[in-house]
């Protein structure tokens, strides 16, 4: 293989994205420091390439700066905007911003008889190709979820397109949102991280709450409260043990009898919003998980996973959408 030094260094994005995707699947958390080396490397390589293009000044060199501008001034802001609107997680946005700096233009890798990527777009903005590849791959996730559910004999709709059914006892290590209420299906059910936060705040476990829901529903049963953490799986706090609710527990000061489960007390007593959870959503979710042995959840998929695959495909194949449109004779 032959390539320029900057293009060889840009391959560093693949192991970093691969590790981030693996971690996001396991714990839904990617440290911000993960992206600092890629941003630093990207800035260094932009200067390296920019100096070379400034010294020549042909139309191709001007086009290089236009493409860099699109990557930095269009792709990066798109990532930030989608994060602000809730379409991306923070790690997803930071990953795409890092990519917009590190991979603004198409790299080229020469092999005996062929070069990669195979399909290069007219626009020539590599970070944009990674974004479109990611969107195309993510769009196929509901179909893959449907196929899995049908193979498992789960045919409830629309749940089979957007969720999966799991044993309630496995919620302490699950990710996503409840896809159901006591009345039916919903896309805005209780966030499972928020459920873990609530259990840790009470100093109890899902097993204990399910064993004595009447006691847990009584706000007077809430005694000493604890650090709820951020709800991540694997925290040192108890999120699935067998701590029993104390039937004679010491009540929290002035518990509100009109606050079932202590939902309002929980949300008022923590910093932040527990992933947008309202008292009503928390109460409804607790009713579901204490009544049923199996629940539908909407697990979603960390955007970094299709981003990693989309990036890998971009390096090897190129632009999936542009290639498909070319095969249809559209471009």
Automatic annotation (TrEMBL):
Preflagellin peptidase C-terminal domain location: 290-320
Principal location listed in the UniProt entry: membrane
Amino acid composition bias (Low complexity), ranges on this chain: 240-253
Parts of the chain that traverse the membrane: 35-56, 62-83, 95-112, 118-141, 303-328
Location(s), subcellular: Cell membrane
One Gene Ontology term, aspect cellular component: plasma membrane
InterPro entries: Preflagellin_Peptidase, Preflagellin_peptidase_C, Prepilin_IV_endopep_pep
Prepilin type IV endopeptidase peptidase domain boundaries: 13-128
Coiled coil: none
Topology relative to the membrane: Multi-pass membrane protein
Keywords, sorted A to Z: Cell membrane, Membrane, Transmembrane, Transmembrane helix
Molecular function as annotated in GO: aspartic-type endopeptidase activity
Top-rank taxon: Archaea
Record has Cytoplasm as a keyword: no
Region annotated Disordered, chain positions: 210-258
Bias kind Basic and acidic residues: ranges: 212-229
Any Pfam family the entry gives: Peptidase_A24
Protein's name according to its UniProt entry: Prepilin peptidase
Organism: Halobellus ruber
């Amino acid at each position: 293989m032959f390539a320029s030094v900057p293009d060889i260094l840009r391959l560093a994005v693949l192991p970093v994205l691969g590790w981030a995707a693996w971690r996001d699947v396991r714990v839904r958390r990617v440290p911000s420091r993960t992206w600092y080396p890629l941003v630093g490397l990207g800035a260094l390589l932009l200067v390296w390439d920019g100096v070379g293009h400034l010294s020549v000044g042909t139309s191709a060199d001007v086009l290089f700066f236009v493409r860099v501008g699109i990557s930095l001034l269009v792709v990066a802001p798109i990532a930030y905007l989608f994060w602000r609107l809730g379409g991306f997680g923070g790690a997803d946005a930071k990953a795409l911003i890092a990519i917009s700096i590190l991979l603004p233009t198409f790299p080229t890798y020469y092999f005996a008889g062929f070069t990669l990527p195979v399909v290069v777009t007219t626009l020539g903005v590599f970070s944009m190709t990674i974004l479109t590849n990611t969107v195309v791959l993510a769009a196929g996730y509901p179909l893959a979820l449907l196929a899995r559910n049908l193979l498992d004999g789960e045919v409830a709709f629309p749940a089979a397109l957007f969720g999966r059914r799991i044993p309630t006892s496995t919620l302490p290590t699950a990710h996503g949102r409840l896809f159901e209420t006591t009345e039916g299906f919903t896309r805005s059910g209780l966030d499972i991280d928020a459920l873990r936060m609530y259990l840790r705040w009470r100093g109890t476990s899902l097993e204990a709450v399910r064993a004595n829901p009447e006691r847990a529903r009584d706000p007077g049963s809430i005694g000493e409260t604890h650090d709820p953490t951020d709800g991540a799986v694997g925290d040192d706090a108890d999120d699935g043990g067998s701590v029993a609710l104390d039937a004679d527990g010491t009540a929290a000061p002035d518990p509100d009898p009109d606050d079932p489960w202590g939902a309002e007390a929980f949300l008022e007593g923590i910093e932040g919003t527990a992933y947008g959870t309202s008292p009503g959503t928390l109460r409804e979710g607790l009713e579901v998980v204490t009544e049923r042995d199996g629940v539908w959840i909407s697990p979603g998929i960390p955007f970094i996973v299709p981003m990693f695959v989309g990036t890998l495909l971009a390096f090897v194949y190129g632009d999936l959408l542009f290639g498909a449109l070319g095969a249809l004779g559209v471009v």
